Amino acid sequence: MAREADVVVVGAGPAGLNAAIRASKAGAKVLVVDRKKTIGAPVHCGEGTFARILKPLDMEEGRWVVNRPENMLLHPPNGKEFNIDISSLNVIILDRVLFEQEMAKRAEELGTEFILEKTVVGLGGGGVKAGGTTGGVKAGGEVEGVKVGGVAVDGGERMGGGVALDDGEKITSHLVIGCDGIESGIGRLSGLTKPLPLEDMGSAAQYRMEGDIWIEDTVDVFVGDKIAPGGYAWVFPKRGKLANVGAGVMGVGGHPPALTLLRRFVEERYPDARIVDTMAGCVPVGPPIDTAVKDNVMLAGDAARHAYAIAGGGIHSALWAGAMAGDAAGLFAQDKQRVHIREYDENWKAFMHKNLKKSYARKAKMYSSEKAMSRFMSGLKFAAPLIKYLPIDPLRLWWGKHDVS
Ligand SMILES: Cc1cc2nc3c(=O)[nH]c(=O)nc-3n(C[C@H](O)[C@H](O)[C@H](O)COP(=O)(O)OP(=O)(O)OC[C@H]3O[C@@H](n4cnc5c(N)ncnc54)[C@H](O)[C@@H]3O)c2cc1C
Hints:
This protein is α+β, with helices and mostly antiparallel strands. It is built from 8 helices and 22 strands.
């Protein structure tokens, strides 16, 4: 017999875990599916974010916060590095494995069930109109030969469905939340997103390195065509002698791949540090999508292109969107009214659509040439010392509101 849930969340990253926590808290029966064996691992992330985003989760303190750097040393193309006091931004470096496992524990305590090491390969029910097809899903709720159940709600419209797993198992649910990251199969199957064009994709490589050379209270950011054309390289010190050292570039531009650039950078700059492990991944750096909901499917986090293009940061926005999607799912589980799904779409847009667009426009300008980047750096050098004297939270200028409490 098929498993059943009110809500299936696909992906146990920051977006999916927060969606699960919020929906479970509201009393929904939530099932989270992730293809990973261990929640949070392997990490594909620099793990830098802001303490403020952990407040609504009540997770500001814990083993998952491994550093609180107060300085950012910027290395512009002209070699004249300068320091910015970032203490008022409350930057933190996470251990994402510990962070996500703690979130999963909290979700489980609230009743969320997890299915790990299974990949969602099909989407059923919602989005399927009689006589039509949506993103490879056959009309009538058939997914790759697997019949999926459906429920009639909200005036008799067939909205139910669920997902099909790679082992043939089907899970029926009223709602599916696609938090399945940049490649989002749920986005494609529902027709909400298309594969990202290369120009809207940032590609990055990162080493976890061990050495005596990192300054613990300082993150380093390097820009310039020699190091990372159209992007930047970073050093985010972690606990002890560890640091995340990475390089990210745009998906197009005729430059060497991110891993080659990173290897060169590290050989030149940190020849004595030891590489502990290597990873590579992609970040959505294009414009935001216009809608993240369709029928009984909602997208959140990287799946909905909720990352900020200017720096490729998406932990904070994935948590925000996950919270909003989870709240909507909790309400929907109670009364099956579609209005909650539509409200999710309105809410995330009101919260961050404008800022995501701004971030994309700034990114396009800033990274267009080394000259443009140097101009930006000169402006920053002049303005940065003022940040700590601002009478308001500096992140407000960048994000606008930033708490989904
Ligand atoms: C190299 C690199 C460095 C980065 N550094 C930073 C940083 O320092 N700060 C920052 O804020 N952001 C950073 N980002 C971006 C950040 O990692 C993402 O924005 C963030 O993880 C998005 O969270 P999410 O929950 O939307 O998706 P993800 O964290 O990608 O989680 C998606 C989950 O879905 C699962 N999944 C996918 N498809 C399926 C399927 N079909 N079936 C089952 N499970 C599936 C995956 O296994 C995964 O666990 C970085 C990204 C990269 C690649």
